[in-house]
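agent> step 3/5: call structure_predict on target 'Helix-turn-helix transcriptional regulator' (Vreelandella neptunia).
agent> reason: downstream docking stage needs a structural representation; sequence fetched in step 2, passing through unchanged.
tool.input:
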Amino acid sequence: MIKCHLSRIMGERKLKIVDVARETGINRGTITRLYHETASRIELEAVEALCHYFGCQVGDLFEYQTNSDD
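tool.output (status=ok):
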């Protein structure tokens, strides 16, 4: 399973979804799905824009976690 840390990062910086969407140019719906971890896919351009905006690496935004059922 892929865990998205966007909500934590945004919370630490006290940012709203609309702020991140406006500053990155990413659709607000995409940010919302990532924030709530309901996204099933994301464009690489969006990942790049988020990494640039937050000054982080891809691994800071996303983490692979093994399922305990495996």
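agent> step 4/5: record observation. The chain has one domain: 2-64.
agent> proceeding.
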